[in-house]
Amino acid sequence: MKYQQTVFYIFLLLFCANSQINAQSSPVIKTSYRAEIKRADNYNIVFNIVESISSGKISWIIRNSTDEMLVNNIKLKYDSLIVQLPFFDASLLLKKNKLGYVGEWKKRIPQGEQYMPISIERGSDRLHLNRGVPISNVSGRWRVSFTNPRGQKSEAMAELKQVGLKLTGTFLTPTGDYRFLEGIVKGDSLMMTTFDGSHAYFFSALISSSKTLDRGLFASGPTYLETWTANRDANMVLDETEAAFQLKGADNRLNFRFPDLNGNLVGINDPRFNNKVVIVQIMGSWCPNCMDETSYLSQYYKKNRQKGVEVIGLAFEYSTDFSKAKTSLNRFKDRFSVDYPMLITGVTSSDTLRTEKTLPQMTPIIAFPSMIFIGKDGTVRKTHAGYSGPATGVHYEDFKKEFDAYVNILLNEK
């Protein structure tokens, strides 16, 4: 009898252990998809998705070049898939079909809601060009001239990297960059696209020579279209004066007070900021460069707050409604684990009087994001407009070095 009991207990322990192993090693089904947001002019924005299904739960990785955005707020109901995109007030409303999914991309814009058709089909490729072998390698720095629909010109910088047929890189402007672009070069043509949940971009151009790109097109959203040309220029430096903002008048101190995400009023003159170096971040949850900057500032703050550094985020949202702004900003806060206060100004990013209503001591805010550096004595020491994020490579590394060096100068002041 004792022998039979012993055998039974051994069997029970082995069964439980095996059950735990099976539960822990539940197979993950992965599928690669090619997603295409469709425009009426066929300048469609393509990006890649890797879908993972485990124990009935679906998650996505949206991929553009080296950038991988996790999407795990996905609800499946019968043949419908509702994908809530992170950071931004945007979602994908999809129906399952034989090839994958089909539906609409929905996002909030200042005027209301915007919809664009999207198809998502199985496959790991991205862009197609029937042009043969590339006539030139376009890697390097380019001086770019954009022309908008009103005929106005603006200057930008392109940093491109071509390996074989694959092309990656980004465009930098005085107010920020276009983040992670990925595409292809074939024959005398190039194409690149990106999608971050809220912004969908398409770029194409003709390679006239090893030093010239011509007949460029830039498509954004449902209908917006610009043209561009570029010349190779390894020594180009962006002129950032057009995005600059600064103090006006003799008063060199800020004076603001706005509610945080819990509704508690926080002001620059509160005791917690006394004798501290303070970085005021001007941002919005709709802004892709603000996303990159928030990621950086959140990590920096965690590592350096004990030295006497504080950060305050001033949010300019699409809506003046506090609850809507709070919902959008909480996504930012949670995704980037933000510990510093993010304040809701109650003023929209499109308000022409946004500066006068929030920071009347400053000249107009041009760029989102922007930063204001405040010394331990409470005075404004420096401003910085725009942001060169991780997609810009060397520019991002230079920014981090300069940022760290300047904050250390302020910290070392008596």
Keywords:
414 residues; alpha+beta; Lipocalin; Glutaredoxin; nine-stranded antiparallel beta sheet; eight-stranded antiparallel β-barrel; 5 helices; 42% strand
Describe this structure in words.
There is one protein chain. This protein has 414 residues and is α+β, with helices and mostly antiparallel strands. Residues 1-19 have low confidence and may be disordered. The strands form four sheets. A nine-stranded antiparallel sheet has the order 4-3-2-1-9-8-7-6-5, with no helix packed on it. An eight-stranded antiparallel β-barrel has the order 10-11-12-14-15-16-17-18. A hairpin with a 2-residue loop joins β8 (100-109) and β9 (112-122). It has helices at 2-24, 288-304, 322-335, 354-358, 394-411, and strands spanning 29-37, 45-54, 57-64, 67-71, 73-77, 80-85, 90-96, 100-109, 112-122, 140-147, 153-163, 166-173, 176-177, 181-186, 189-195, 200-209, 212-220, 224-232, 257-259, 265-267, 277-283, 309-315, 342-344, 370-374, 380-385.
